[in-house]
Specification:
Layout (H helix, E strand, L loop, with lengths): L3 H9 L32 E7 L9 H20 L4 H8 L9 E5 L15 H15 L6 E5 L6 H7 L4 E4 L6 H8 L7 E6 L16 E4 H5 L2 E5 L1 E3 L18 E2 L14 H9 L2 H6 E12 L21 E5 L2 H18 L8 H8 L16 E7 L1
Parallel strand pairs: 1-12, 2-3, 2-7, 3-4, 7-10, 8-10
Antiparallel strand pairs: 1-11, 5-6, 6-9, 10-11
Length: 380
């Protein structure tokens, strides 16, 4: 049985050289990008890294956001083949119509540590939100930014956008929050009609069965954008697009944190959650934050420069519609860095389980749906 106390203790202690250019890229074969890929028309799984040498963590927010804006714009135009940012977004948001709602799922798992380097960048989130509002024409009240494992501080909300809807962890000490969750009145509550089919029995730390549900917030939206991190996890090689949805799941025991998912069946659980039709059907894009990246979660504090990115930060975002392909690329970056530093090799079996479940393509091995991963790098 999984020991919750040990897990929480471990979590509490957690407090490339891939120099790219438009003409050359030095990297091992597994991560050798194809610079000539037609990203807008390929039937294979495309992963695009957009890299900006000039991005700095010390510059003012407006300057930093302007550079990130350009990275997102160039990335979206390249993967869609469109010349305008609006046309690119409208292609990504298939069948978007006025009044549609959009959910954005960042990784705020370490937000309580007050370290912006190990949560999804508020600057990147601000850029995405403002592009949706100003370029696509989405009303702020139709944008839901959520992470159901954490309270989102006002300081972070003000950096992103003050007028969108934030859906966050309920307060287990609040009587009102408890009532709203049990009566399922809150968008953070589980939707009983959207139970997640898990291949293994999920149990709490006392051995009692726990059911898993999609939250009501995702039943309200038509589109979902996943914004994970380039980071390892303490148990697996990459806590990316797939595992980011551990912060989506709601539980029959009203737990606010997915401790019960971190047991013996963590790899299978990652695949099962992402196979739910709400997540599969509504996810329109994954934009991963690789601006700083973390390769030593569980062994360090993050915020370190990478040997494999030329003794620098990655200064990148990664874009894809295939969560397995994207995660397999990011996992390989993480593991190459860890091997350079003689850190423990972490499991990546969840990637092949996800590929075999039809969720996408694994960079190392192919799943049931055929094709191959095409990884390209574009430098601004």
């Amino acid at each position: 049985m999984f020991n919750r106390r040990k897990f929480l203790k471990l979590i509490l202690t957690v407090t490339g050289f891939f120099f790219s250019s438009k003409v050359s890229f030095a990297a091992p074969d597994l991560l050798q990008p194809n610079m000539n890929t037609d990203l807008s028309s390929s039937a294979d799984s495309i992963v695009l890294r957009v890299h900006n040498f000039a991005l700095s963590s010390t510059e003012k927010d407006q300057v930093r956001q302007k550079k990130i804006f350009e990275m997102v714009e160039q990335g979206l135009n390249k993967i869609t083949g469109k010349n305008s940012l609006k046309d690119a977004w409208l292609q990504i948001l298939q069948n978007y119509k006025k009044g549609d709602s959009i959910a954005i799922k960042p990784n705020f798992n370490s937000i309580h540590l007050n370290n912006k380097n190990i949560i999804t960048s508020p600057d990147l989130l601000s850029v995405l939100v403002n592009q949706l509002i100003e370029v696509v024409g989405v009303q702020p009240y139709n944008i839901y930014l959520y992470d159901l494992c954490k309270k989102i501080p006002d300081s972070i909300k003000s950096q992103i956008h003050p007028n969108i809807r934030y859906i966050e962890r309920f307060d287990p000490e609040s009587v009102l929050d408890k009532i709203k969750m049990r009566l399922r009145l809150d968008p953070a509550a589980g939707a009983t009609a959207a139970e997640i089919s898990m291949r293994n029995s999920i149990k709490d730390d006392l051995g009692r069965p726990v059911k898993c549900f999609i939250p009501k917030v995702l039943s309200r939206v038509q589109h979902l954008i996943n914004v994970p991190l380039l980071t390892n996890h303490v148990f697996i090689s990459n806590s990316g697009a797939l595992k980011n949805h551990f912060g989506t799941v709601r539980f029959s025991n009203y737990s606010s944190y997915p401790v019960s998912l971190h047991g013996d069946f963590i790899n299978e659980s990652i695949a099962d959650i992402n196979m739910h039709p709400v997540i599969r059907g509504k996810t329109k894009l994954i934009i991963a934050d690789g601006i700083v990246g973390v390769f030593d979660r569980g062994e360090g504090e993050g915020g370190k420069k990478w040997i494999t990115f030329g003794n620098d930060f990655p200064k990148s975002i990664f874009l894809s519609k295939d969560p397995v392909a994207l995660d397999s690329v990011m996992a390989e970056h993480v593991m190459q860095e860890r091997r350079k530093r003689n850190l423990t090799t972490l499991s990546d079996s969840y990637l092949q389980i996800a590929a075999d479940s039809g969720l996408g393509l694994n960079l190392k091995r192919q799943g049931k749906i055929g094709g191959k991963v095409k990884y390209s790098t574009f430098t601004i």
